[in-house]
Amino acid sequence: xxxxxxxxxxxxxGLRLKLDSVASASLGTGKSADGLDALRWWQExxxxxxxxxxxxxxxxxxxxxxxxxCVHEFAxxxxxxxxxxxxxxxxxxxxxxx
Length: 98
What we know:
Layout: H1 5-13, H2 19-27, H3 35-48, H4 52-78, E1 80-84, E2 90-94
Antiparallel strand pairs: 1-2
Helix pairs in contact: 2-4, 3-4
């Protein structure tokens, strides 16, 4: 079985959410960076040959996986997820991913 949580939420809500929005509202913590940061780090690595930017990319990816896991566990435990709508209100959406 394959579950794309963000696609499921898009289907339920009719709008596309960012993982950071769901994680922030549901868990009180967001992602450590975003894809643009990872792209910038990759370009820095290519330009300088330094491996420090690659370490940052690895940490970003690992943290992203951890946040995704925690959001999924929250949904399983509570039966809903939260997100902030366009007006800034925190909204709950019921999910059944058992």
